[in-house]
Amino acid sequence: MSITLQEQPTTDRGFWNDTGKTGIGSWIFSTDHKRIGLLYFYSVLGFFLVGVVLGLLLRLELMAPGRDLMSAQTYNALFTVHGVVMIFLFIIPGIPGAFGNMVMPIQIGAADVSFPRLNLFSWWLYVIGTVLVLLSLFTGGGAPDTGWTFYVPFSARTGTNVSLALFGVFILGFSSILTGLNFVTTIHRLRAEGMTWSRIPLFTWSLYATAWVQILATPILGITLVLVIAERMLGTGLFDAARGGDPIMFQHLFWIYSHPAVYIMILPAMGIISEIIPVFSRKPIFGYKMIAFSSLAIAAAGSLVWGHHMFTSGMSDTAVLVFSFLTFIVAIPSAIKVFNWVSTLYRGSISLDPPMLFALTFILLFSIGGLTGLILGAAATDVHVHDTYFVVGHFHYVMFGGTGFAFFAAMHYWLPKFYGRTYKTRPAVIAWGLMFVGFNLLYFSMKVLGMQGMPRRYYDYLPEFANLNMVATVGSWILAIGLVLMLVNLFKGLFKGAPFTGNPWGGATLEWSTPTPPPTLNFITEPVVTHGPYDYTALKHDVREADSGVTP
Amino acid sequence: MTHAPHKDYSGAKLGMWLFLFTELLLFGGLFVLYAVYLARYPQEFASGGHQLNVVLGCINTLILLTSSLCAAMAVTAIQQDNRQLTLRLLGGTILCAAGFMVIKYVEWSAKIHHGIYPGSARLVEGPPGESIFFSLYYMSTGIHGLHVLIGATLLAWIAWKVRNGSITRTDFVILENGALYWHLVDLIWIFIFPLYYLML
Ligand code: HEM
Ligand SMILES: [Cu+2]
Asked: Are A308 and A301 in contact (CB under 8 A)?
C-alpha cells in the first residue's frame, strides 16, 4: 500500500466538521459513507442492547424452575422479539452497515461508495423496517410469539401481530439487498489505482463475498414472507396441509435464505479478524489467497446446505444424507481460515491490545461454536439434540462469541480512527475478562443442558436442570457487567479520551494512511497503491520517511 | 482529493443488473413452488390451466413484447438526440402497461365472478390441487402486476426527466436502466405465460 502517511493536524476534525454543516440533518440526510456507517453503528448497537436486555429477562425467568417473572405467553413473545431483534436488527445489518460502510471505501482507496444516495436510502429502509417491527409489538394482537423463524402453520394461525412484523422484516431485507448491491458495485468499480484484486484487504474481500449472499439469498426470504402474509390475509393455503399446501415448503424457502444468512453474519466478522490478527502479530497474514478464496467458497457452498435445519422435519433420507454431507464440506473453508489465523500468530510478535484480545477470543469461541455445529450437521447426532438448548448454546457461540466479539474487536480497532480519541486499555481488558468468563458460564451451561435433554423455547423446565440454569443466569449477569464496563470505557475514551493520531497499531491497509479522523473525501491526494495490504516492510520504510520529514 | 463529479456508467449498469438478479430470485421462489406442486398435482394443474383464458393471455404477451420494443427503441432514440421520439416511445410503453393491466383486470374479475379466488368457498371445498394452482396463479400474476405498475411509474418519471432535459444524448444511463427494468418485467411474464396458460 502506499503508506505515505497523509498526516494532518488533528485539530481539524476531518469529516466531523469539514463540510461546514451541523445538526441532525447533516447526519440523517448525509450521503457520506462514514456518517452513514456511524448512523448504522449507533442504530445496531442500540438494538443489540435492547436484545441483550430481553435476553437477560429470559435468563431471569429461567433462573429457577416454575414461573418466576412472567407467563408462558410473555416468555414466547420475549424470545421471539429477542431473536428477531438480534438477527434482523443487529447481526445481519451490523458489520456491513456499520464497519463496512465506515471502512471499506477507504480500504480500497475510494472517496465513497458507488451509490451514496442509495446507501442513505438503505439506512432509511432499515429505520422504516425497524419501526414496523417495533409497532407490531404493541398493536394488533400483540407481540409475535412464533420464534424468529416464523414457522407455519403456527405463524399462519396465531392471533398475534405476525403480519406487520413480517412486513417489517421484508423491508429490512430490501435494505440488506441494497447494501450488498452497493458494495459489489463499489468494489468492482471504485478501487484506486494499483488496488488489484490480490491487494484488496481481507475485510473488503469478506464484505464482497457477503454482498453476493445478500443479493442472491435475501429475495427468497422476501417472497417467503410475502407468502406467509398472503396466507394470513387472503387464505392462499400454499403452506396449509389441509388445503393441499405443504408446510415443509415453507421451511425449505425459509432456510434457503436463512442458512446463507448466517454467512452474512459471520463472513464480515471473519474479515475483521483477518485484519486484526496480522497487525497485532506484526506479521503478514498467512495464506492471503486462501482466506480470500475461502470467503467465496463459504458463500457458494453455504448456499447448498439449508436442509440441515430440517433433518427432523420429514425430508427423505436421501435428502438428509446429501445435506449432511454438504454441511461437512462447508466446514473445510471455515477451518482453512482458522488454520491461517493460527499460522499467522505462530512466531509473530504478538501484542495483546484490546482489539487483539477480542479477536483471539473470536477464534476460540467461533471454533467451539463451529465444532458443535458439526454435531448438529451430522444427521445421526442432530436427531438427538435438535431443538434442545444444545442448539441455543451452539448458535450463541457462533453469533455472539463469533460475530458479537468481532464487532467489539472492530469497535476497539477502528472507532478511535474515526473519533481521533481513544479509550483506556486497562478497563477494556477487565471488561473483556468479565465478558469472556460470563459468556462461557452462560452458554457452555446451555450446551450441557441440551445434551441432558432440556428443550428450547420453554419458560419452565424439570427440576434436574435447575443447577446449570442458575449458573447460566449468573453468567448472564457477569457478561452484562462486562458489557456495560466495556461500553462506558469505550465511549468515554472516544469522546473525552487521549488523542489518537497517525498509525499507532501499524496497520498497512489504506485506512491507516489517511488523516485521523479522515476528511469527508477520505484522502488528501488520490492514493496510488504499490504494496499488498499486509506488507509491513513497506510500512516501516515509509513511516521512517515520514518521520524524517520527507514529504510524500 | 478533489471530487470530480464523475458518472460511472458501467457502475450504474452493474448495479441495475444486480438488482435484476434479485427480482429474478424473488419470482424464483414462486417458480420453485410451482414446480413442486405441479409434480404433486398434475391433473388439477392441468384442469386449472384450461380454465385460464389463453386468448387474453396471448394478447397480453403481445402487448408486453411491444412495450419492450418501445422501451428499447426509446434508448436508441435518445442516443440519436431525438427527444420527441423518445418521449413518444416511452408513452407507448406506458400505454401498453396500462392495456396490460386492464386486460389483467378483466381476467381476474371474470375468475373472481366465478368464485375462484384464494380462500373462496369453491376452492376451499374443491380438490386441494386446484386451490393450490389458483393461489399460485394469483400470487404470481399479482406480484407481476405490481411490478408492471412500478415499472410504468418508473418510466413515467424517466419520461418527465427526458422532457425537462436532464436525460440527454450523452447522459442517459437512467433511461437505459429503466428500460432494463422493463425488459425484466417482460421477461418474467414470458415465463409465467407458458407455465400457467399454455403448458398444462
Ligand atoms: C446477554 C446476551 C444474551 C442472552 C442472555 C441471551 C439469551 C437467550 C436465551 C435464554 C435464549 C433461548 C430462549 C428459549 O429458547 O427459550 C435465546 C435465544 C436466542 N438468541 Fe440470545 N441471548 C443473548 C444474546 C444474543 C445475541 C448477541 C444474539 C445474536 C446475535 C442472540 C440470538 C438469539 C436467537 C436468534 C435466539 C433464538 C430465538 C428463537 O428461539 O426464536 N442472542 N437467547
Ligand atoms: Cu444452517
From this structure: no
Mutation choice for ligand 1 from A71, A75, A79, A444, CB with most ligand atoms inside 8 A? A79
Domain residue spans in chain B?
A: 16-197
Residue nearest to atom 2 of ligand 1 (CA): A52
Q: Is the CB of A475 under 6 A from ligand 1?
A: no
| Least CB–CB distance from B1: residue in A181, A246, A525 | A525
The CATH number for A311's domain is 1.20.210.10
- Which residues pair with residue A421 across a beta bridge? A499
Contact indicator for A105, A187 with CB cutoff of 8 Å = no
- How does A292-328 read in b/e, with b if 16+ C-beta sit within 10 Å? bebbbbbbbbbbbbbbbbbbeeebeeeebeebbebbe
| A503 Cβ contact partners less than 8 Å away, ≥ 6 residues apart | A5, A512, A513, A539, A543
Q: Which three cell numbers stand for residue B135?
A: 393461489
In a domain, A20, yes or no: no
Phi, psi values for residue A218, rounded to 5°: -60, -40
Q: What is the pTM of this model?
A: 0.93
Does residue A6 sit within a domain?
Answer: no
Total domains present in chain A: 1
Residues facing residue A422 across a β-bridge: A498
Cell 477520505, residue located: A522
Q: To probe the interface with A, which of B7, B9, B26, B188 has the most A CB atoms within 10 Å? A: B26
Please give, rounded to a whole number of angstroms, the shortest distance from the CA of B157 to a CA of chain A. Answer: 17
The boundaries of the domain holding residue A299 are: 25-547
Could you say which residues from 131 to 160 on chain B have a Cβ atom under 8 Å away from some Cβ of chain A? 131-132, 135-136, 138-139, 143
Fold of B16-197: Four Helix Bundle (Hemerythrin (Met), subunit A) (1.20.120)
C-alpha cell belonging to residue A173:
431485507
Please state the φ and ψ torsions of residue A159, each to the nearest 5 degrees: -80, -5
> Whole-angstrom Cα distance, residue A241 to residue A107?
51
DSSP string, A441-510: HHHHHHHHHHHHTPBSS-S---GGGHHHHHHHHHHHHHHHHHHHHHHHHHHHHHHHSEE--S-TT---SG
**Residue B190: all three cell numbers together:** 414470458
Q: Cα angle at A33 between A30 and A36, to 5 degrees?
A: 55
Cell of A197: 484484486
A371/chain B closest Cα distance in angstroms: 32
Q: Is residue A4 part of a domain?
A: no
Q: Please, which residues have CB within 8 angstroms of residue A297's CB and are 6 or more apart in sequence? A: A332, A333
Q: Could you tell me the three cell numbers for A399?
A: 453469533
User: Least CB-CB distance to A216: which of B10, B25, B41?
Assistant: B25
As a whole number of angstroms, the distance between CA A7 and CA A503 comes to: 10
3-state secondary structure of A531: coil
pLDDT by position in tens, chain B (length 200): 444 455 789 999 999 999 999 999 999 999 999 999 999 999 999 999 999 999 999 999 999 999 999 999 999 999 999 999 999 999 999 999 999 999 999 999 999 999 999 988 999 898 999 999 999 999 999 999 999 999 999 999 999 999 999 999 999 999 999 999 999 999 999 999 999 999 87
Of residues A185, A199, A220, the one with CA closest to residue A115: A185
Q: Residue with C-alpha cell 441440551? A: A450
Q: Which residue of B has its CA nearest to A243?
A: B128
Question: CA–CA separation, A372 vs A391, rounded Å?
Answer: 9
* Chain A residues closer than 8 Å to B127 by CB: 244
Pairing mode, strands A421-422 and A498-499 = antiparallel
- Least confidently predicted of A122-131, A295-304, B67-76: A295-304
Helix axes B54-79, B173-193, angle to 10 degrees: 160
User: Cβ–Cβ of B18/A185 closer than 8 Å?
Assistant: yes
- Residue B67 near residue B96 (C-beta atoms within 8 A): yes
Residue A14 lies in a domain: no
